[in-house]
Amino acid sequence: MRHCKLSVLTMALATAGFSVVYTPQLAFAAETTPTQQEAKQAQDDNIKNDTNTNTKSVETNKKASDEAANIERIEVKGYSKSLIDSLDAKRYGDTVSEQLSADDLGALPDVSMADALTRLPGISAVRTGGQAAEINIRGMSGGFVFSTLNGREQVSTSGTRSIEFDQYPSELISSAAVYKSPKASLIEGGVAGTVELQTVSPLQSDKDHSFLVNARGMYNDRASEVYGADEYGHRLSMSYQGKFFDDNLGVALGYARLKQPSVATQFIGLAYNDSKEVDGLANDTNGPIDAPANEYISEGFELQHLGGVEIRNGYMGAIEWAPRDNFKLKADAFLSRFDSESFARGFRVKFGGSGAAIANPVLDGNSVIGGTFNRTSKSYTRVETVNDDNQDFDEVNSFGLNADWQVTDRLNIAADISYSSAKSNFRNGLLWANVAVDANADTPVFDDNVSISYQLNGLNLPDVGFNQADAFTDLDRVMVSKYGIYPYENEDAVKAYRLDFKYDLENDYISSVEFGVRYSDRNYSNRRSVFEYGNDGAFSSAEPPLKLTSDMASVVDWQGEFSYFPSYLAIDLDAALAAWFPEGIPQPVQTWGNADGVLDAKGYTTNYSWTVLQSGEVFEKVFAAYAMVNFDTEIGGIPVTGNLGLRRVETDQSATVLENVGAHPELGAQYIVDDLGIVNNYYAPKIKGIDYVDYLPSINLSFKITEDSQIRLAAAKVMSRPPINRLAGDASATANSDGVINGSSTNNPYLKPFYADQYDISYEKYFDEGAFVAALFYKNIDSFIDTVAITNFDFKGNGFNVPDYIVDPVTGVQTSTSNGTYTTAMNNAEGGYIRGLELAYTQVFASLPDLFSGLGFNASYSYTESEVQSITSLGGDSATQSLPGLSNNVLSATLFYGYEGFETRISARYRDAFVSEQVAINDQVVNFDSETVMDYQASYQVMDGLNVLFQVNNLTDEPTKSYFGTEQKTGTLQYFGREFFLGFTYAL
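Predicted structure:
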């Protein structure tokens, strides 16, 4: 009997779950397996996970390939070959890692790299609008994940350091690695881990020329429930790789386009940001109770239809030149343009705060989760019809030039120059309408007879009722009362220079030494601006509401689970704005105050001063150097490989700050003119920051205890820098009418990184028809960034220019000032451990009869726990919540089958409850319910080079559900629908 020995990729079949196709020569005996050192060398030659890795000649690779062919080999096709390459990379890598590779451009089936990466053990994703965007590694959120492309640091359009992986088309990425343990030669920055994406190296292609076209149509089955939403989209990609001049010149080009409908129907509960004293009896879920002294009240809720289109165009190019066997020069570029235009229509319900009259409140603890809210003269209770229009234009660029020179048989030198930039222009446009007593009146009056009844039902949709429901679709009652545009523009760019050396030794213990340096210069900037007209809580006489006509609005009914909610008016934004602004819509501006230029007596605050104070720049310069030794020896007869190294990192960070110095030019005050010509001379522009040095040791060891099994040990000190936008300077301090000085700074240019000590141990077993891996990890994190309130803060002693007294403008009475509270971001949130277990198993039934030999199964499971907790009051009552991104249990499983050109798979990804930012609401970190996402795919090879494919994402239409502290306080309930794909792939 012939035994099939699957080289390591059988376990990474979890990465995409495709079947393996074998030829009749199905032998892979144990003795034909390459030694660990030989395979490690092959990895260094073919998988360039780090820009300082040696690149050997193509002839050497061919020779190794020919030698392997003289023994017995397994021949696999298509995606299966890609997965086997992935397992090989994992098995022979020198760190604890997960690997994902594609046989050719366009081979990965996923919409983006975010989807592809979630198929790896210990990795999960946060879905936004139904799409995976941010990834979590080992229970830590995207802010702790460092990302590179072709070994180079990448910046993000998110305004943070968290890469939005949905901007990276899987069709243009040839391989990906997730490093869970670092080594000294890797760029620092990932406490959770480092994600390395790779584009192709054309000179290492098996073919002289290859061309691939991938086209798929797309359909969303919930789009028909959303008025004005697109149901159809498409994916298209093309790529070419070619080698010329006796394989001395290689060229690769790729293009990928995605046009997909953005669809969701959602309920959004808003935070409990107010409280009210209540007398008498109230009701909780168990009946009447004595009412507490205070009840917490939510700001309200939203019921919305979301629709729109997302368009992503990705471009990749590479030129590789090898004029000599020992020298290679490669230039590559990657560009992504991700544009989205979307609408949000429905209702925004405002309960009205403590001034509202509440009848029959229902409580969860001290928080109101049901009752009837009635508007009073002291409340802002209302129901708005919303027609929001959002536009997001994102650009990602990455360019690099790399030279690799094998100076001698032992010495290799690699040099790299790179530039990465990102630009985002997000425009949030709001069109709000309210109910009038009579919209046809000469001076319309806001209808303040508002009554709202509701009852939250936990993770199910709530019961709601409105006394104005009949008016919501009446053109004689509804009037547009406010329009606003709130752009958020940011740019981020980093230039980096790197030089690496590797020297091979003839030594029984140390195989080589590596050392190198890297310098990077990063500049981040953001700009805020605003335009507003009208009033959302009443009708303005100076900026009167707009009377709607029949050509401006359409009646929309809710469908599906939401069908019991009252209908609303979908307003044609262009028609409404043309009627409101016949001479053209004014554009947003950065301004100190109102258009009339009126500042208050002290110049501290005006309506829109935040647009100036929250705009600015961050500068970050990093110089890093490392030294590392690579082991290849034996201990007690056991082969041992690995590395030991130290990385020294010197960081100089600073940010622009506008410091209020009270119109004192001797303190640096300058005349600052805004976009409207308004002058403010109360602020002194300054640059503030710190510099610091870190030492990051690391060790990785692999013990080959048998021919087919090994144990890995790893330990390191790691760091993750704060989100780049949190380093911006926006500190301010003012004195209130009582003379108490209070100040705040959402951000802080003095923030330092997160630090952690981490340890890994894993066991890997590879057998004839599969593989098994078990790993334990432990991280001890020093501290986290938290927003804290410092009472009795010494403002003067900390550099704030504040008055000694204030003067009442009416009476002229002087009041001495006193120190109050300063709220700011600091590195003082208590740290703690994160620890967990990861298991992965793959079984391919290759020894079964021919019809069943393509059957296989793989699964991965991770358990993660942490003592790190934080306190949240977003649900009213204070409650503890876990570390953002942490799910105790994450499971991924795939069943796949292939036979004579037919391949199919079904996969499922489960994660239990976790904490993350609430969907559609910034800065609300809430609890998310557990979820199971299932996908299905089938393909058939019609003829050589031509495959047809059918695919369903989110097969069970799994929604996203969140809550505030307890499930009774509903957060977001968002339904996306299923996505169906049908298309083909053609390769030459």
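Summary: The mean pLDDT is 83.
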